[in-house]
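New to this. Please check this record:
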Amino acid sequence: GINKNSVYGLLQSAGILRRKSEKPRTRSLNDRAFNTLNSKACYWAGFLLADGSVIRGYGGSPMITLTLANRDRSHIRKFRAFLGSTHRIQSVPTQHATRLSVRSRPLADALVQYGIAGAKAARAPTETMKRNRDFWRGVIDGDGSVYIDKRDNLPGVSLVGQETVVLAFEEFARRLTPFTATSQCRHYGKMPLWRFRVTGRAARVVIAALYRRATVSLERKRQQASVILKRGVGGGQDAVSQRSPRSKNLVLATVRNAVADYIASEGCSCCRDIMGHTEARRTLAKLLKVPQYEDK
């Protein structure tokens, strides 16, 4: 008879590599989830760049893994739903975390094309992703912060990560609004990481561009963004309304907030908020007592 080990030995001696077998799939998974760059695909690409991993070289299909703290377990469920997956969500007690892992060569190949694969230090967004607000919301949800500074009551948005990623986010933010902040390099132990932070009205513009009418986001950061956008800058409408209705400061603060909303809704060509932009034009025209601008 013919022994399979003998056949494998003959193939190896002839220099013919044995193809690694892949176990048949027993759970559902949409291998084409990242083939179309819609808002959700761009978001999850950004989130995986920040917090995910794509591991190759262990036999079979590459493994895509997302691990988050237990408090964000609902976000893991959102990711599983996006993938059309029925894979089990695992608990990681030693890390107080929750994990989802799936194996898929098509998914891994798509993520490689968008710069999301390999060691985190080597990842870099593609030119397409650099201008996409959904992608950057994913990155901020993973490695960034949306906050209100307790010292001066001003809103802020920040990102800590590798140089290529942080500088690309700074470039994205500068397309939305002018500011003086710049990215800086910090050493955490022996690891050099970059940090970008912007506060005040510029931060509100960036936060509005990222989170207003977002299709998917990390719930706790979405709530923080919602608070910031409702309150305005430096205390918002509640703080301003305590002043005299005829106060010049009131008028100035109101106009500044309207301008911030107008700029945020303008965005760039890939993420313009048409409904918000129209409403912001009306508000600003009414405050300035000028005819409403119309695109020709």
About this structure: The radius of gyration is 24 Å. Residues 236-247 have pLDDT under 50 and may be disordered. The chain is about 45% helix and 15% strand.
